[in-house]
Specification:
Layout lengths: L1 H21 L15 H16 L3 H11 L3 H10 L1 H4 L5 H11 L2 H17 L3
Helix pairs in contact: 2-7, 3-7, 4-6
Length: 123
C-alpha cells in the first residue's frame, strides 16, 4: 500500500512540475514601441512609406486596427508563407517583419508611422 501511495505522489509531483514548465508556454512577449531596435524601426519606416506612396494609408490603418488582436496569428501566417515569399523578397527582413507583427506594440508603432506620414503628405 505504501508503494502505491509513493507512486501516486511521484506521479502527482511529475505532473505539477510539467505544468510549471508549461506555465509560460503560450505567453506572448510584448515590447514597448521605444524598445524596438534600429533595424525594426527602419523596416517599419520603409513599410509605412510604401503604404503611403501607393495611397493605401486608410485601408492599411483600418486593416491593422482590425487585426491587432490577432497579431500573433498574423505573424504565424507569415511564417507559414515564408517558403513562397522567399522567392521574391529578402528573407532577413521578412523574418524580422513576421516576428514584429506578432507584437501588438510593433503594430501600434507602424500605425503611428503611417498616420504621421499621412498627415505630412501634400493633399
Amino acid at each position: 500500500m505504501d508503494l502505491i501511495l509513493d507512486i501516486k505522489s511521484i506521479f502527482i509531483y511529475i505532473i505539477i512540475m510539467k505544468l510549471r514548465i508549461l506555465k509560460n508556454a503560450f505567453e506572448i512577449k510584448q515590447t514597448k514601441p521605444d524598445e524596438l531596435g534600429e533595424k525594426e524601426q527602419a523596416i517599419l519606416e520603409k513599410l509605412a512609406r510604401k503604404i503611403n506612396k501607393y495611397g493605401m494609408a486608410l485601408p492599411a490603418i483600418i486593416f491593422l486596427e482590425s487585426v491587432k488582436p490577432l497579431s500573433f496569428v498574423a505573424g504565424q501566417v507569415m511564417v507559414f508563407f515564408k517558403p513562397f515569399i522567399s522567392a521574391f523578397f529578402n528573407t532577413r527582413e521578412y523574418d524580422l517583419l513576421a516576428s514584429m507583427l506578432e507584437d501588438r506594440n510593433a503594430i501600434e508603432a507602424l500605425l503611428k508611422k503611417i498616420e504621421a506620414l499621412e498627415q505630412n503628405a501634400p493633399q
